[in-house]
Amino acid sequence: MTDIKSLKLDELKNEIISLGEKSFKATQIYSWLHKKGAVSFDEMTDISKNLREKLKNNYDIYTCSIEKKLVSVYDGTVKYLFKLYDGELIESVVMKYKYGYTICVSSQVGCKMGCRFCASGIAGFVRNLAPSEILSQIYVAQRDLNIRISHIVMMGVGEPLDNYENVIRFLSMISDENGLNIGMRNISLSTCGVVSGIEKLMKEKLQLTLSISLHAPNDEIRSRTMPVNDRWGIDELLSACRRYTDTTSRRISFEYAMISGVNDSDECAHELGRRLKGMLCHVNLIPVNSVKERDYRKSSDTRINSFIKVLEKYSVNVTVRRTLGSDINASCGQLRRGENNNKE
Ligand code: SAH
Fold first, then answer.
1. What would the CATH number be for the domain defined by 2-60?
2. CA of 257 to the centre of ligand 1 (A)
3. Ligand 1 neighbourhood includes 210 CB (under 6 angstroms)
4. Is 209's C-beta closer than 6 angstroms to any atom of ligand 1?
5. CB-ligand 1 contact for 213 (6 Å cutoff)
6. Class of domain 65-343 as given by CATH
7. Which residues are catalytic?
8. Structural domain boundaries of the chain?
């Protein structure tokens, strides 16, 4: 059966026509799926019973069901553990900011990248998410919380550029005016540094914000924590980033997890400053979240402040990421990891 929610409107029109129906029906169905977040054909009350039966016989509506929901008592951040049609689990987080609600979505079940400080890849990679499954995280959260989500960050479990085609299709559908119509400027996509994917992405000329999980100022430190660096070293990564900003005129955001004694010295800051000086970019420092299976501790506030002072000497824009949802294991892969552990 075809995954109907992964079809774009023009594709759905062709399908509906081949079922012997008028193409405007496709617009109605598309709106049910993508604007109203319908999870069954029976909800589509303006579609005839006859057509609904045909749809049921030919298509599946992939959704995600809420397996667990945690709400932070500190800041209202909501973390979902969602179950997919095949029983696999993924995570999403909804955060409230002054400008509206942001959702952090997953792009894969598990991850192949193996970053040492991250919980997402500990249990390995299972499969890619379909476009419909990335969309569903947003639709289900909106419906459950009765809110409108205005911003999206692709910073959940998985490496978006390792699921390239599905992620591009997701981006096109979520920004489509026949769906939720969330503007590309309100979307961030984060990569651990898959240079081949960055090269492809720049050709799409999307107005989204590209985030790079840099986390180190040189190859020696980066390769210790991020295996992807053995495939594409820092020089290659940063030159792709420069081409990216030249092609798209969009500022790149570098994520830098501050890990005590690993990448947080003043020398590291000088090295980073020298490399990023003059680039159209912003650095986001994130005190590392400790993961049970990993022996990394966050840098002290004094260390972080000193790191910032050094970077500012190179006129590099830098801020420290605010921590939300610290009581609900809101970071990357922690909840899914916890749940799978309970079952083991
Ligand atoms: N695979 C993509 C998307 C995941 S984004 C990427 O790597 O960019 C999730 C972000 O959280 C990445 O920047 C990741 O490096 C970071 N991260 C993972 N584990 C972390 C931890 N324990 N503490 C702080 N940041 C972490």
1. 1.10.150.530
2. 8
3. no
4. no
5. yes
6. alpha beta
7. 91, 332
8. 2-60, 65-343
Strand boundaries in the chain, DSSP class E: 2-3, 59-60, 65-71, 78-83, 89-97, 100-104, 108-110, 125-128, 149-154, 187-191, 209-213, 252-258, 281-287, 317-320
Taking only the tens of pLDDT, the chain with its 344 residues reads 999 999 999 999 999 999 999 999 999 999 999 999 999 999 999 999 999 999 999 999 999 999 999 999 888 899 999 999 999 999 999 999 999 999 999 999 999 999 999 988 788 999 999 999 999 999 999 999 999 999 999 999 999 999 999 999 999 999 999 999 999 999 999 999 999 999 999 999 999 999 999 999 999 999 999 999 999 999 999 999 999 999 999 999 999 999 999 999 999 999 999 999 999 999 999 999 887 777 889 999 999 999 999 999 999 999 998 777 777 765 555 556 656 554 43
Distance CA 291, CA 82 (A): 21
Locate 298 and state its tokens: 């966050």
In single-letter form, the type of residue at position 152 comes to: I
Distance in Å, CA 89 to ligand 1 centroid: 18
Ligand 1 and 332: CB distance under 6 A: yes
| Closest C-alpha to ligand 1, atom 10 | 155
Q: How far is the CA of 26 from the centre of ligand 1 (A)?
A: 39
Task: Indicate whether residue 226 lines ligand 1 (CB < 6 A).
Answer: no
Closest CA to 97 of 70, 69, 125, 77: 77
